[in-house]
Amino acid sequence: PELLEPLTLTRPAFDLRCGLTTLAEKQRLAMGASEVGVLMRAPLAPVYRQRHPSVAVNDPDWFRGDDVLMVNARWLPPDDSFVLPSRSCVGMVGDGIAFVMMKKDQSTTIHFEELQDRLRQSLDTSPPLAAGGRLITYAWDLVDQNAQEIRRDFRWLGPAAQAAQSSGQKHS
Q: Which of 47, 110, 139, 154 is deepest in the core (most CB within 10 A)?
């Protein structure tokens, strides 16, 4: 996140816009996630909670009970539809981690104090998977991808997508 400063001084990296939507909105749409929890620096949490009251923020209980897909805040998902992994794995973009899928038996015992160690363990024990997309490293990566992401957002959010959603079809 230091490489994305000063943009990330006042917001988490996943709250940065690329195109018409934030990285988090793109990740959620790509994965079809119905429930979202976030981890962020403590000073940013109160404001984020206020702006997004339905999102679990820095809540260890959110990890308990079901499979957990932990997504790198800087991951810009690929254009094509993302298929949620059915097994534990580490999604990679080059040498960078895009996401870590932890099945229920792995995620129910996570405590924040050991989160870094659990992620390292996942790297050592879970098979890598090509995640596609790209990791945003610098502010100019957002600018570089902006035009393409505006086009994608129109496909996702435009009138054709809304008509397909209201008729029960999945958008492309």
A: 110
Q: Which of 54-63, 105-114, 158-167 has the lowest mean pLDDT?
A: 158-167
pLDDT at 125 over 60: yes
Residue tagged 């794995």 (tokens): 89
Q: Could you tell me how far CA 166 lies from the centroid of its own chain?
A: 25
Asked if the bond preceding 127 is cis, omega within 30° of 0, the reply is no
Contacts 24+ apart (CB under 8 A), 25-32: 26/76, 26/77, 26/149, 27/71, 27/75, 27/77, 29/156, 30/77, 30/78, 30/81, 30/82, 31/69, 31/71, 31/77, 31/82, 31/84, 32/84
How would you label 93-119 residue by residue, b for 16+ Cβ within 10 Å and e otherwise? beeebbbbbbbeebbeebeeeeeeebe
